[in-house]
């Protein structure tokens, strides 16, 4: 499976497992899962045939481990990043003292004013290292990395969860925990 096909299938799955299941007529269960044969049939019916082997390759080879199969490989879901309501069932976890968020300069005035908001997703995404945050920010322009005082947030009662692919999730970050911008 070449790189281009891998990316195309990954984008297609992200779209329908995170944002628009109804676009191909599938229903995600409350935890975000859909049966693999149901997904494959729906994709084929909507002009994007994917075979089972390709699906498994996309799950295992995905650069960010965006998708997970359940234990018996019967069902698939996106590990995070949803805009449709799903309960990923992730337990609360104590975060490290500092986490990082990648964004761009044009959002800084609003972020300073109101903190980080999840926008169209369910949660604000934070990473454990600056490099990942830089890459996330760079999707939108010249990246700025914000340092988040996550340890302090946690001590103040904010609930953090860690997705299956290593992204820290929190409902929002009030402005006082945003330590500083750095290009
Ligand atoms: C910004 C990709 C104004 C926030 C990435 C971000 C990540 C505000 C944008 C994952 C704001 C939301 C998530 C406020 C936050 N005012 N702007 N108060 N609060 N923002 O895409 O973190 O490839 O929903 O800084 O790699 O950029 O899809 O979030 O710029 O892991 O798997 O609003 O998506 O992963 O954008 O990216 P997003 P994100 P995938």
TrEMBL record:
<dbReference type="InterPro" id="IPR002745">
    <property type="entry name" value="Ptrans_KptA/Tpt1"/>
</dbReference>
<comment type="similarity">
    <text>Belongs to the KptA/TPT1 family.</text>
</comment>
<protein>
    <recommendedName>
        <fullName>Probable RNA 2'-phosphotransferase</fullName>
        <ecNumber>2.7.1.-</ecNumber>
    </recommendedName>
</protein>
<dbReference type="GO" id="GO:0003950">
    <property type="term" value="F:NAD+ poly-ADP-ribosyltransferase activity"/>
</dbReference>
<keyword id="KW-0808">Transferase</keyword>
<keyword id="KW-0520">NAD</keyword>
<dbReference type="InterPro" id="IPR042080">
    <property type="entry name" value="RNA_2'-PTrans_N"/>
</dbReference>
<dbReference type="InterPro" id="IPR022928">
    <property type="entry name" value="RNA_2'-PTrans_KptA"/>
</dbReference>
<dbReference type="Pfam" id="PF01885">
    <property type="entry name" value="PTS_2-RNA"/>
</dbReference>
<dbReference type="GO" id="GO:0006388">
    <property type="term" value="P:tRNA splicing, via endonucleolytic cleavage and ligation"/>
</dbReference>
<comment type="function">
    <text>Removes the 2'-phosphate from RNA via an intermediate in which the phosphate is ADP-ribosylated by NAD followed by a presumed transesterification to release the RNA and generate ADP-ribose 1''-2''-cyclic phosphate (APPR&gt;P). May function as an ADP-ribosylase.</text>
</comment>
<dbReference type="InterPro" id="IPR042081">
    <property type="entry name" value="RNA_2'-PTrans_C"/>
</dbReference>
<dbReference type="GO" id="GO:0000215">
    <property type="term" value="F:tRNA 2'-phosphotransferase activity"/>
</dbReference>
């Amino acid at each position: 499976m070449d790189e281009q096909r891998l990316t195309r299938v990954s984008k297609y799955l992200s779209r329908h497992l995170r944002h628009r299941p109804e676009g191909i007529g599938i229903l995600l269960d409350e935890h975000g899962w859909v049966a693999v044969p149901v997904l494959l049939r729906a994709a084929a019916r909507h002009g994007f045939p994917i075979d089972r082997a390709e699906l498994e390759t996309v799950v295992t080879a995905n650069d960010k481990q965006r998708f997970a199969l359940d234990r018996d490989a019967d069902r698939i879901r996106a590990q995070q990043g949803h805009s449709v309501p799903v309960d990923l069932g992730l337990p609360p976890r104590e975060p490290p003292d500092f986490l990082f968020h990648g964004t761009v300069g044009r959002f800084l005035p609003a972020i300073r004013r109101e903190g980080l908001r999840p926008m169209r997703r369910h949660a604000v995404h934070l990473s454990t290292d600056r490099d990942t945050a830089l890459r996330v920010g760079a999707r939108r322009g010249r990246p700025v990395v914000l340092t988040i005082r996550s340890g302090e947030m946690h001590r103040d009662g904010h609930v953090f969860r860690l997705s299956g692919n290593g992204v820290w999730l929190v409902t929002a970050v009030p402005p006082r925990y945003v330590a500083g911008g750095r290009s």
